[in-house]
Design a protein that fits this description.
By secondary structure, the protein is mainly alpha-helical. It has a single domain (about 15-409), classed as Amino acid/polyamine transporter I, CATH 1.20.1740.10. Helices cover about 85% and strands about 0% of the residues. It has a two-stranded antiparallel sheet. Strand 1 (about 250) and strand 2 form a beta hairpin. The longest helix has about 40 residues, at about 270-310. The radius of gyration is 20 Å and the shape is globular.
């Protein structure tokens, strides 16, 4: 009997890892890298405070969302529809629009990565990125490949950023002071909304959870383990990237305004930071990092956005694979027409940050509904912390709207 169970346990372990890294690499997309680099160059050491708050809010939001999906065995839009007919349709549409905004940027991110690695023109890189995403997805073992690719690319990103963080010698004393410079907090609302949107806004918290539902994994415990792995991975990468860029903008405790301005004004801010820190090798390494983040995010965003739409109509369910392909193809076309990947990525993060309080509030309401979670008792501390995240993200999001509008200008 135990022998029969062995492969299943192993499979579920690899699926749990795959889901965690699918969520982490969906979060560590090109937008995440671009936003973190630009804001670090803009705000300096005090940004660490916003990053730590964003990571805590990220863990809280995702623990709540994954727990309810795990217990109910349903996708988020079906939970929302059961809560209030029509709510799931609304949720599916806003998440899919947010996913599309992100995916246009993700394709652009792969293009920026190609440009930094081998000097390929941005539009050619965008077409290659779209084709790569489609090839990965059309493979008959697409979901297994997606798990493996996500795990390998997460490791590539982590090592690359760590190497540059060590080379750039960040001023740790300034970072410690920055962590308690509370007076600067209100000036960074756009940064908080964007960073939160980039790590757990829009489709991102559902990417791994929906993957586990597809794999038939059940139970809040399994889902929570997966969440902690995923959020810790993306959180560590965010902190290392912040340190790498901060080291580039400082010499000891002296701020180098020229370097900061160069990063803020660059068409590829993160690549510019890596170039300043580690020369040509840093630039190429970053190209690899951006390429890795982009490819996994292109597939993750398309897969999750369509997983929201597929239960709305049997036609979408039947042709799920082709909807994902169409989603990637449309994102690629948009990127080729619109261009300016770096700006698109920051806008996408901000827009997805505004979706978070809506999707999280739906899941918290569902945690109290017997017809959705049965006899399961959702921990009160998670509910309370979840409500705090809903209120903060809604407040910060509303406050950030004028700043977000400026991004469109």
């Amino acid at each position: 009997m135990s022998n029969n169970n062995q492969p299943a346990a192993k499979a579920s372990m690899s699926v749990l890892f795959g889901a965690a890294f699918l969520m982490a690499t969906s979060a560590i997309g090109p937008g995440f890298l671009t936003q973190t680099s630009k804001f670090t160059a803009q705000y300096g050491a005090p940004l660490i405070m916003i990053i730590l708050v964003a990571i805590l809010m990220d863990i809280t939001a995702q623990m709540n969302i994954w727990s309810i999906i795990g217990v109910s065995g349903m996708r988020a839009q079906d939970i929302a529809n059961k809560l209030l007919p029509g709510l799931g349709v609304f949720l599916a549409i806003i998440v899919a629009i947010g996913g599309l905004a992100f995916n246009v940027g993700n394709v652009g991110g792969v293009a920026l990565g190609f440009n930094a690695m081998i000097g390929l023109p941005e539009k050619v890189g965008a077409v290659v990125a779209g084709c790569l995403g489609i090839i990965i997805f059309l493979n008959k073992n697409a979901k297994t490949i997606m798990d493996k690719v996500a795990t390998v690319l997460a490791a590539v990103i982590l090592i690359t950023v760590l190497v540059v963080a060590v080379i750039s010698k960040p001023p740790m004393g300034e970072v410690a002071k920055g962590a308690v410079s509370f007076g600067k907090f209100p000036t960074m609302f756009v940064a908080l909304t964007t960073l939160l949107g980039g790590s757990c806004g829009g489709y991102i918290p559902f990417s791994g959870a929906h993957r586990l539902v597809d794999a038939g994994v059940e139970g809040a415990g399994n889902f929570r383990r997966s969440v902690i792995q995923g959020v810790c991975t993306s959180g560590v990468v965010r902190i290392l990237l912040f340190l790498a860029v901060l080291g580039t903008c400082t010499a000891g405790s002296t701020w180098i305004a020229g370097n900061a301005e160069q990063i803020i004004g660059a068409s590829n801010p993160a690549a510019e930071a890596f170039k300043l820190a580690a020369g040509d090798l840093g630039y190429r390494l970053f190209g690899l990092c951006l390429f890795s983040a982009g490819v996994s995010s292109v597939v993750g965003a398309a897969f999750t956005s369509v997983s929201f739409l597929k239960t709305l109509h049997p036609f979408i369910m039947k042709y799920e694979k082709w909807f994902v392909v169409g989603f990637i193809a449309f994102s690629t076309l948009m990127m080729v027409i619109v261009g300016n990947a770096a700006q698109l990525l920051i806008i996408a993060g901000a827009v997805n940050g505004l979706i978070l309080p809506i999707s999280l509030a739906c899941m918290l309401a569902a945690s109290r509904s017997k017809k959705i979670v049965g006899d399961y008792k959702h921990p009160m501390w998670l509910t309370v912390l979840g409500l705090v995240v809903v209120l903060i993200s809604a407040y910060v999001g509303i406050k950030a709207v004028p700043g977000i509008m400026k991004l469109f200008g």
